[in-house]
Amino acid sequence: MAVRTRSELRRIDQAQTVHDKRSFGIAIFTIVVLFFSLVTFMNPIFMKSQIAKESNGVVAERYINQKFDNFAAAIGADRSSNNSTNNLLTVKQTRPIANAMIDYTLGVHLFRAENSSLASQIRKVILTKIDDNSSMEAKSVQEKLKKNKESGLYAIITSFGLANATLAANVELVFLILNILVIIFVGILAYQQIKRLKEIVSTGRLIHMFAAGGMRASLGLIVVFGLLAFIPTIFNVEGLILNIGYFLEIASGIFLELVIVGVVLFVISTVTWQLTSAK
Predict the structure, then answer these.
(1) Higher pLDDT, 4 or 25
(2) What are phi and psi of 180, to 5 degrees?
């Protein structure tokens, strides 16, 4: 009977150990992903540096030109070519518009209830950045905008989809607050778990369990974000709703950086796990 009891206790202990390792893995994965999103996707400075890269700059240029093409049609500008693949704006002209939209959408801000200020910034770029070296179509848009200030501003709001930008800004604000709260909450839970385990296991055993959790979390990072990074290369994502396709194209490189973080974490966790396996 005593042997049976010891066996049952051993199984309970093993099950609890597996549970603790899994809990550490979930906590590490959650904190890493949320913190990474705070300093990348929700950081306007970082995202503006991303679209400054050549590969991402092409995606941003294509996106802004698509919106500008809609605006040209809405404002009734002359078009010598109906080929939508011809970019009316250059990188020098699309970059300030993209940066203005990023500043409006991301970062720490209050709840957005209007987008006329963003429309005014876009109008200023169109009026000042289009010069004699620009395409005839772009100059035609500029002339139309000069003659129709009020209607032109409304056309910018509708053609550039600034209502969606306002929605995205408010959703980003909610995610920003939730991210911070979840990181704090998960951190407290992880601290309480560590505090509990310190009373019943040795420091070496605790580090071993934490490293095992780190291995689980790193594998999750590698698999999940590795798949997300390769979605734009496998599927045509450009037609997805709410411009998600453009986001995935730009984010694919950032996802790969998170995969690298997962690989580094896996190596560190594995080495630590091996060194403490005899503890």
Answers:
(1) 25
(2) -65, -45
Question: What gap in Å lies between CA 231 and CA 253, rounded to an integer?
Answer: 11
Question: What are phi and psi for residue 4, nearest 5 degrees?
Answer: -60, -40
**Residue given tokens 């420091």 in the structure block:** 203
Would the CA dihedral through 98, 101, 105, 107 be positive or negative? positive
Residues whose CB is less than 8 angstroms from the CB of residue 167 and which lie 6 or more positions away in sequence, other chains included: none
Would you say 182 and 256 are in contact if contact means Cβ atoms under 8 Å apart? no
Q: How many Cβ atoms from other residues are within 10 Å of residue 26's Cβ?
A: 17
Q: Which helix (H) or strand (E) holds 119?
A: helix 116-129
Cβ(52)–Cβ(114) below 8 Å? no
Q: Which two tokens stand for residue 200?
A: 């019943």
| Residue 137: CA count within 13 A, CB half-sphere | 19
What pTM, to 2 d.p., does this model score? 0.85
Q: State the distance between the two ends of the chain, measured CA to CA, in whole angstroms.
A: 30
Alpha-carbon gap, residue 37 to 15, rounded angstroms: 33
Beta strands in 52-174 (DSSP E): none
Centroid of chain to Cα 131: 34
DSSP 279: -
Instruction: Give the pLDDT of residue 73.
Output: 87
Tens of pLDDT, residue by residue over 232-278, are: 888 766 666 556 778 888 888 899 999 999 999 999 999 999 998 86
CB neighbourhood size of 56 (10 A): 21
pLDDT computed for residue 86 by the predictor = 64
Give the residue from 47, 34, 159, 176 showing the smallest Cα distance to 112. Answer: 176
